[in-house]
Design brief:
The structure is a single chain. By secondary structure, the chain is of the alpha+beta class. The protein is built from 16 helices and 16 strands. It has helices spanning 16-22, 45-48, 65-68, 70-87, 90-93, 109-118, 147-154, 158-163, 194-208, 252-255, 259-262, 278-289, 291-312, 354-371, 403-406, 423-431, and strands at 7-11, 27-29, 38-40, 57-58, 102-105, 124-128, 138-140, 169-173, 180-181, 211-224, 227-239, 275-277, 324-332, 338-344, 383-384, 387-392. Strands 9, 10, 11, 12, 13, 14, 15 and 16 form an 8-stranded antiparallel sheet that branches. α1 (16-22) crosses α14, α4 (70-87) packs across α13 and α9 (194-208) packs across α12.
């Protein structure tokens, strides 16, 4: 194809990512046995393919599971926190107090029992370490509720245990006081615009009063050495379809916000759905609690993203061929404290509505823009479409300010989660400066 710029790609998934790649100028899909330049693959592909040519790119790091498997994430976060406390201070270690008390099962079963007995009456949640979409999760308040699971595990031979390692669980203290949309303290108002508060409050109160939710946030990593991370401006809240109550711990529609679970609820309304854009949520929280409280919340969420990545930075096999799009699940409690629930290496890209499709299409298009197979970027960009560079071997600030002169207090972090996403305007301005594309 003389005179044209061609990127050969393979894609093992369907949905918005296929549409993004097919509609990208100069990109051509190739068959399984053909040479390729870009591969959007499943997490298992890298286990069987060790060698890659110099110029190719794939969408996973080889041992991504160090962050995305629940028990491994727990191990790495605990070690990272302990190292901070030893090498810096307890104050530094406190920056990692963003994940609930958790134990890897069955290895830490006896430690779990000790903690369980110290807090009688608490609610706990059991999760398979390597499953997703709410599969295998259950809540319990009594040890006898997990004895059947424990008994089953104890009767297996060592060989069987090794074969079933993927079925390990984590036992985690359940957040019993989640922030509920339209829940407690409905009469608390800040000095924020009353008209905005009333409009948003009435909408939330009518649609979602007393519902639990968590947040899905997207973080892209293009390198671990040096660590380079991008935060996407858009995301969404995933809402339960049933009012929250601790008196019904067996009701998965109350406690599990996974879309795959909520779509099976008897009263699920596809017109209303179970998602809410994070921009709307940020406006609602600001109207209810004030700008300062919400900015503090989002700053604490930024700390979760960076600290969790740093916890695996020395373990992840850094490979210039690889990048990763992580889906972070964050839960807020009633004091607006964010908790890290889990990190997904293959966040669901299946759209649940046209609005959801549009968001995920833009997310994936900007992900491919950052990978930059066409060679249109300089490598110095702080923003590409809906992505903002939040860490580049250190914190990234929105303006180039000499910290030695002005001090760190004058610097503003380059993070805009839940803010306006004028990505098309930004891309038009950014990419028109680089009209040439490199040949592949």
């Amino acid at each position: 194809m003389e005179g044209r710029y061609v990127v050969r790609y393979k894609c093992s998934q369907i949905g918005p990512i296929q549409d993004v790649l097919r509609q990208r100028p100069g990109w051509v899909e190739v068959k399984d046995d053909c040479e390729w330049d870009f591969h959007w693959c499943g997490v298992g592909w890298l286990k069987e393919n060790l060698y890659m040519e110099e110029h190719v790119r794939v969408n996973h790091f080889r041992n991504h599971y160090e962050l995305t498997r629940k028990d491994f994430m727990l191990k790495n976060l605990k070690r990272f926190k302990k190292n901070l406390e030893r090498e810096a201070s307890c104050m530094e270690g406190s920056k990692c107090d963003f994940f609930p008390c958790t134990f890897a099962m069955p290895n830490e079963y006896h430690l779990f029992v000790e903690e369980f007995k110290r807090n009688p009456g608490s609610t706990w949640i059991m999760k398979p370490a390597a499953k997703s979409q709410g599969a295998g999760i259950f809540l319990f308040k009594k040890l006898k509720d997990i004895m059947e699971w424990r008994k089953h595990d104890g009767t297996r031979s060592e060989e069987q245990k090794d074969a079933a390692q993927v079925e390990s669980y984590v036992a985690q203290r359940y957040i019993e006081n989640p922030y509920l949309l339209g829940g407690k303290s409905l009469t608390q108002k800040s000095n924020y615009t009353k008209q905005m508060y009333c409009t948003i409050y009435l909408l939330i109160h009518y649609l979602f009063t007393g519902r639990k939710f968590d947040l899905r946030v997207y973080v892209m990593v293009t390198s671990y050495f040096p660590l380079k991370a991008w935060l996407y401006r858009e995301g969404f809240a995933r809402l339960s379809s049933t009012r929250f109550s601790l008196s019904s711990i067996d009701d998965k529609y109350v406690h599990l916000t996974n879309v795959a679970v909520q779509k099976t609820a008897p009263d699920y309304d596809p017109e209303k759905g179970c998602k809410w854009k994070i921009q709307k949520l940020r406006r609602y929280l600001t109207a209810k609690h004030g700008r300062q409280a919400v900015e503090t919340l989002f700053k604490e969420m930024d700390n979760i993203f960076i600290s969790s990545l740093q916890s695996v930075q020395k373990i992840i096999i850094n490979d210039k061929h690889c990048f990763e799009l992580y889906g972070y699940d964050i839960l807020l409690d009633e004091s607006l404290k964010p908790w890290l629930i889990e990190v997904n290496a293959s966040p669901s890209l299946a759209p649940s509505s046209q609005e959801d499709y549009d968001m995920k299409y833009s997310l994936l298009e900007d992900t491919v823009n950052i990978v930059d197979m066409e060679g249109r970027l300089t490598g110095k960009e702080k923003r590409v479409g809906g992505y903002d560079l939040v860490w580049n071997d250190g914190p990234v600030y929105s303006e180039d300010v000499d910290s030695e002169i002005f001090g760190c207090s004058c610097l503003k972090a380059n993070t805009y989660l839940g803010c306006v996403n004028d990505r098309e305007h930004q891309l038009n301005s950014l990419l028109k400066t680089f009209p040439g594309q490199k040949r592949t």
